[in-house]
Every structure is written in C-alpha cells, then in structure tokens.
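Give me structure tokens for this 494-residue protein.
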Amino acid sequence: MKNLYKIISAIFLVVLISCSEEKIGESEFGTVTGKVVNSETFAPMENVKIMSSPTTSTVFTNAEGKFTVTNVKVGEYSFQAQKDGFVAKFESVNVTANSTSEIVFELNKSTTNNKPPTVPVLTAPTDNSVNQAVNLELTWTVTDPDNDTMTYTVTLRNDKNSDVAVFTDIKDKKLALTNLIYGTKYYWQVTVNDGVNAAVLSTISSFSTITFPTTRYLFVKKINGNNVIFTADDAGKQYQLTSSDKNYWRPRRNHQAQKIAFIGSSGSQNDIYTMNSDGTGIKKVTNSVSIAGFNADYLGYSWNASGSEFIYPSFDKLYRIKSDGSGLTKIFQTPNGKFISECDWSADGNKIALKVNDANGYNVEIYVINPSGTVTGTILSGQTGAAGGLHFSITGQKLVYTRDVSGFENLNYRQLDSRIFEYNFVTGNSTQIVTDKPLGTNDLDVRYSPNEAELIFTNTSNDGISQKKIVKTGIGVADSRVVLFTETSMPDWE
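Here you go.
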C-alpha cells in the first residue's frame, strides 16, 4: 500500500506540473478580416453587416468595404455578408490560433422587387420628321426606378434596301449617325436593358433624310493617299461621294443613265464602276478584261450618249461593253502595238477619238475611228512630248485636247508646257484656244462646259508636286480664268 501511494502521488505531481506549464485559455482564439465589393463594379461596399455561424461578434464594413472580427475561437465558421438590396453571401473560413484569416465577399444585386426601366421615349428626330441631315444624332429618354446601370441597343432600317443596322452596348442616351442615304426614310427603335429584368423596347419612330442636292461638277481629291470622288453645286458646296478608304478616280456623269462612272482599283487591276448620283449603289462593270494602259492616272474611257454602253482601252485594244457588264466586244486594235490611253465617243455615236502612245506615254497619235474600227482621220502625229484630255463637242464637229508644246520627254512623264488645243473637223485644223496660261504651269484634263461656251480643266505647276486646281475659262475670251476648286483634279461638268 505504501508503494501504491507513492506511485499515485508521482503521477499527480507530473500532471500538476504539466498543467501549470500551459496557461488556461492561451492559443484558443484568432482574427478574421475581410472586404466586401460589388460583384459588377468591384467597388467597396460600406455598412455591410457581417455575422457568423457559430455566432461571434457582429460588425459592419467601413468606407473601404473592410471589416475585422477579433477574439474568434478557433474552429470552422460560416461568415455572412448582408445588405439591403443585395443577395446575402456566405463564405466559410477556418480560424486557427493566433493567426488572421481573410475573406472577400462579392455581393450581387437582389432581383427581388427590382423594377424594369421605363419604356424609352424617342425624342430626336421627332417621329415622321423630314429633311433631316445625313449626319445626325438620335436621342431618347428613359429612367430606372432602382438606378440600375442601363445599356441600349438601337436598330435602324430604311426603305431603300433590306439592310438592318444594329448598334449595341450604348452607354449614353444618344447615338451619332453618319453618311445616311439621301432621300431615304429611316425607321429606328431603342431597346434598354438594366442587367436584371427583361429588355424593354421603345415604339418605332421614323424620319426622312434630305434629297440629294442638284450638282453639276465632279472631281477628285487626294485623301490619305487615295483618289476620292466629290461633287459640287454651282455655289461651290462640295459633297463627298466615295469613301476615303478607296481609290476611285476619273468620274464621268451620264444624265440619261442617271449614273456616275469612274475607275477604281480592284486588287492588282483597275476596273470601271458606276454609282448613283449620291454615291450609293456602286457596281463593277468590267470583269474579264480590265481597263489598262501605260499609266493608270492617265487612262480615259467614255459613255455613249444614252448611257447604255462604254468604250475603254486595255493596252493596245479598244473594247465596248454594256453598262450592266454584259456584251464585251473588241472593236479595235492598234496596228503598231501602241497602247490606247484615252478615248471619247461622239454624242451621235459615229466617231471615236483615240489617243495612242508607246509604253512610256510618248510617240503620241490622236486619230478617229468609226464604231466598226476603221480609221477615218488623223488629228495629231509626229510630235514629241505628251498629249491627252480628249473631249468631243456636242455636235461632234470639234475636239479639245491638251499637248505639251515643249516636246519634253523623260521617264517620269513630266510635262513642262501643256496647253489646250481644239481640232475642227470641218477645216481639218488644230488651234490653241486658251492663251493666258500662267508660265511654268500645265493645263490638263480639258472638258467642254455643258453649253460649250467655256472650258473646265486642271491647272498645276510643271514641277509635278504642287497642288492642282480646277479652272474654268471662256473660249476665246482673254483673261477669263476662274479657279473653281483647289487641291482637286480630273474635272467633269455635265
């Protein structure tokens, strides 16, 4: 018994010593910190109630969305973030002794009792308004009872074609539209979405754009390295017809066809195209045989009077083609292999004027053939230097053209003194008809005015790099030059 008593006493002493080395309550608590943000914007949320299960202290987030819960007994907990208007969120956490555990809550807006936006009211242009500009702004009003973030979709249709334009993810209650079609009725509708409820549609509203103005002049401007076609009225107001991203040049209007033709680059080749007077409805005419010659900038083609056909060159051959692209026919080939660079077709259809040259643009000949391809007369031959700009008078009894009287020739096709001449088919003579050209300049791309009392043409310095301008002058009238448009070239006046 004495030995048993000693053993029990020893065990009790060991336990007592062990317990005295570990202080009661130490290492049984930790800390939980965290942050609450909006799940859509990730903005911190203030005054969010933070609770836990098992229950600990209840705290609220500060202006930075942060919270701290101290003296949390070690163990597994489920913390809850709660705020009116948002779905409560639960996050589990394991609290360990003498350490800090972190939680991030992303709260979603509650859809319970969330109301949809009002029906959008289309404010401008007003419904059934007319004579609207082709560049305008659509505006509308709408509100959301819960101040939700709203996005808009605009659907736009018109009565000219089946195109449907849809503009999405619009943040403001407005939409700028550009390059609408002239003389067209448009229909538009707005859809609003608050990200919670089903989308809300407005009624359909309509407006009509102004009709395209009456214009007589056509010309080309250089924009971003491309030739861009413009038209202008008698007051000089200009309207861009083709895109600045496309290379289109040498415009020619035909009133009977109510179309404008032009040359456009298509990959590695150039083709003839047509479009409506307002720049819409672009269609390619040539396909299997492109328009081609020694230099694309100096190529010329011609409508017939009715606008049903074209003639155009392709190196040493002249082709005829219908304006819809059908009926391609070769009507002439030069006997000496020279390239055909320009052509013009008389209004009566009986004469075709051709300018031919070698591969460098020189050794020029200008002669006339009939529609069967028979040469009927020669206007220019045996002259050095460049020539071009063929255009018949309305009767077909005269032809204007330009010729560099300096006779200069070089590999860059530079002209030094290009002047305007008129050939008279009755007398068989050519005469210089514009004599007041400024020194050091060239007159190029000459055309008769619609009443043939004046000429329109391009004038530019012979340095080959200065700006070009379109000028008109009276025929046989001294000092009558008038600059119509600057930084422009390749005029047409119909």
